[in-house]
């Protein structure tokens, strides 16, 4: 069942989209629809922190795409017979960019949209294509500015802080499960330490993405961000213990027993640290 924080975020998203459509309608601007498109595109993850980082990537990708499109527009204006060749290359690059960083994808999409408009104006040499590039940039910039303004001064950081806190507690629970297994002297593992380390890494993927974007979403250090960073450090140490446990299986029995005993003691200290919610994880045995 969706949490209250997620339901509030849905209402915020709907409000932003409606506001952007209303502004586009009021302005009666030919490219005004791109204001709503930009807001809708960057708000897609529903995460306050991720959307702010996405808006940053979108403006960078849009600027880069418009610069490339301007160069190609000038070239194709006098060499329009190459437009099909450029289109084929662009289609190939677009397929590659889908799997890359969002800013590269937006850059290629921007070039494709602008060149499509350029193709409709060939072989004319009017100012129309250049004015389209300028208008698109202004519309995208307006949409991103609208989103950032509402997100920062109306919605605030509460949603981002709660989201990061929830993700941190979920990861702490997964780490606690691994520490419980490591702290048992005679446990029969269902998976090797390497496999469990890989599982923990996969489980933490969304947390890492959220943590990397938290600096943009929260704006300033806070309790939730400090706790998330401590848990992330703890995660790396638990993964190291899991890998050490796996490596110990290859050692002679006497050495294997010593290594496992050392790992067990460290795991117990880490379990005690993670069970102290009001104190620093690092200061309570995470070393």
TrEMBL record:
InterPro entries: Memb_transporter_dom (IPR049453)
Pfam families in the record: FUSC_2 (PF13515)
Cellular component annotations (GO), alphabetically ordered: membrane
Membrane topology field: Multi-pass membrane protein
Domain Integral membrane bound transporter span(s) in chain numbering: 20-150
Location relative to the cell: Membrane
Regions crossing the membrane: 9-27, 33-52, 59-76, 82-98, 105-124, 130-150
Domain of life assignment: Bacteria
Keyword entries, A-Z: Membrane, Transmembrane, Transmembrane helix
Protein name: Integral membrane bound transporter domain-containing protein
Species assigned in the record: Polynucleobacter wuianus
């Amino acid at each position: 069942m969706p949490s209250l924080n997620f339901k509030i975020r849905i209402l915020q998203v709907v409000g932003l989209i409606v506001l952007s459509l209303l502004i586009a309608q009021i302005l009666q601007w030919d490219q005004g629809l791109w204001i709503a498109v930009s807001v809708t595109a960057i708000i897609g993850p529903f995460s306050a922190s991720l959307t702010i980082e996405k808006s940053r990537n979108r403006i960078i990708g849009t600027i880069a795409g418009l610069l490339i499109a301007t160069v190609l527009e000038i070239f194709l204006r006098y060499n329009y017979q190459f437009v099909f060749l450029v289109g084929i290359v662009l289609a190939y690059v677009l397929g590659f960019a889908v799997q890359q960083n969002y800013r590269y994808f937006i850059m290629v999409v921007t070039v494709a949209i602008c060149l499509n408009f350029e193709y409709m104006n060939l072989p004319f040499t009017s100012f129309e294509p250049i004015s389209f590039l300028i208008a698109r940039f202004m519309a995208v910039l307006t949409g991103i500015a609208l989103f950032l303004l509402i997100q920062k001064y109306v919605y605030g950081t509460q949603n981002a802080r709660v989201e990061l806190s929830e993700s941190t507690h979920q990861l702490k629970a997964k780490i606690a499960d691994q520490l419980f297994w490591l702290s048992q002297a005679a446990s029969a593992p269902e998976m090797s330490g390497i496999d469990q380390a890989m599982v923990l890494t996969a489980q933490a993927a969304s947390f890492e993405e959220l943590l990397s974007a938290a600096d943009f979403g929260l704006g300033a250090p806070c309790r939730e961000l400090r706790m998330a960073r401590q848990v992330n450090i703890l995660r790396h140490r638990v993964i190291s213990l899991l890998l050490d446990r796996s490596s110990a299986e290859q050692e002679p029995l006497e050495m294997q027993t010593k290594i496992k005993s050392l790992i067990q003691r460290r795991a117990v200290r880490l379990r005690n640290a993670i069970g102290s919610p009001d104190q620093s994880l690092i200061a309570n045995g995470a070393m």
